[in-house]
Amino acid sequence: MAEDEQRDVVKEKPRILSGGDSKFVSPRTVALYGVLIALTASITCFTVIPFPPTRGYFNLGEAMVFFSAFTFGWRAGAICGGVGSAAADLLIGFGMFAPTTLVAKGAEGLVAGTIGRLKGGKPWAYALGIICGGACMITTYFLSEWLLLDFGLGAAIAEIPTNIAQVAIGGTVGTLLSHYVKQSMPSLGK
Amino acid sequence: MTGFLDMYSEKDTFLHRLDPRVKLLAVVLISVLAFILAELLYLVVLLCFILLLLVLARSSYGKAFFALKFVIRFMILITMLWPLFDRSGTPILFSVGPLDITEPAVWRGATSAVRVGCFATVWYILMFTTSQRDLVRALVKLGLRFDYGLALAISFRFIPTFGLTIESIKDAQRARALELDKGSILRRSRNYVSILVPTIVYALRTADTLALTLQSRAYGAFSSRTYLREIRMRASDYIALTVVVLILLLPALAKYIYGVQI
Fold first, then answer.
1. What is the 3-state secondary structure (H, E, C) of chain A?
2. CA B173 → CA B12, B166, B191, B197, B217, distances in Å?
């Protein structure tokens, strides 16, 4: 029963962005997006990996962006990744990053979801999706910190290695998550 | 977890009573103002003004201290890194190997740090004084489609729930001898998969139930929905709006029309 409904969640084409005649997003999509946004935000807040060199800077929110993108497609990746990560930024007190995060993680989810699902999700497509999506995210953060928020070139460059590590680890974990969750809920992602 | 899940605390100050739309606009306008100002002195004045508002918002000491700790760490980092990458200017203070630390670069670093301080603290005014419910409602009033607003409201409601789920699954897996703080960072994050998979499966089942709930409550039956508590602009909100717009407009006029160095 539960699996059948999940399949509908995935198969149903969200009508809102495709310019259909319906005035609303279907209740399933609203519930799915709401839950994915909450998951992204809570995983960003609650899974800070204790690792001495980065002073607990590391979190697995990135993995959730890739998971949404690979499992539910680019639309879910963009909305849930962007809004969820921006909400997490707001809640834990990094409000000044929230607009940047919305764009950066949204673009990351969009690109990863588009490229990662090419040819039905081959391993090379996943890898390419992670690399291109990660590149979008890192570039957006760098440009915004350098030009918009005026951190200075030094501080903006200092962020890049952390971001690269975060994308590498988030991409790996996100792919694994997508694989295992599809295994335990076989109706997903068809 | 890195901090508080909700910066909001229930108080009764003029900032709490202000229309959330005005507060959102104020955040944007003050950020633009911080971007316009170029002199260190005026930026410090702006930062003091924002901190004064934070005091008037009567935020709890724990939350304010937690928030400012991040900001100060950022400001120190920027002040230290700026002169290393900016070597223009003549009075050289001292040289370390190939690096020359010049006086104008140090001042520019300090200016930039104070500006970032303004960007960061101005958000706390919004987050300390606006409940999540009001925030979503303001966004819907500002033109966000209400079905997306509903998704956002649902997500704000479930963030603490899923946080607790993660914590309890973490404990359960630890009791089954999962090690989360040993080994390389890749190893550690890999171990988190066995916590996140049950969490995600649980969350997707919740989404299922939630969809049925929405449907059973006639979501989407009417093209516009009503709210129990509407937000309306009152006279005091219009006054605050005028003040906020003037705070941006006067320095911008002075700088771009009359050419005053600020």
1. CHHHHHHHHHHCCCCCCCCCCCCCCCHHHHHHHHHHHHHHHHHHHHCECCCHHHCCCCECHHHHHHHHHHHHCHHHHHHHHHHHHHHHHHHHCCHHHHHHHHHHHHHHHHHHHHHHCHHHCCHHHHHHHHHHHHHHHHHHHHHHHHHHCCCCHHHHHHHHHHHHHHHHHHHHHHHHHHHHHHHHCCCCCC
2. 43, 10, 10, 12, 37
Distances from the Cα of A55 to the Cαs of A89, A155, B89, B181, in angstroms? 18, 16, 35, 14
Residue B147 to residue A24, Cβ atoms within 8 A: yes
B130 in helix, strand or coil?
Answer: coil
- Let me know how long chain A is: 190
Q: Which residue has the tokens 């090690």?
A: B179
pLDDT digits (tens, 9 = 90+) for B106-133: 888 899 889 988 988 888 888 888 888 8
Extract the runs of DSSP E, i.e. beta strands, from B129-184. none
Residue (of A185, A181, A147, A183) closest to A66 by Cα position? A181
3-state secondary structure (DSSP) of residue B139: helix
**Any CB–CB contact under 8 A between A95 and chain B?**
yes
User: Cβ contacts (< 8 Å) between A46 and chain B: which residues?
Assistant: 1, 163, 166-167
Q: Cβ contact (<8 Å) for A149 and B78?
A: no
Residue type (1 letter), A163: N
Phi/psi at B154 (5° precision): -60, -45
The residues near A14 (Cβ < 8 Å, ≥ 6 apart) are A25, A26, A29, A75
User: What's the predicted TM-score (pTM) here?
Assistant: 0.83
Positions of chain B with pLDDT under 70: 1-5, 87, 89-90, 97, 222-224
Q: Which residues pair with A48 in a beta bridge?
A: A59
Backbone angles phi, psi at A108, to 5 degrees: -60, -45
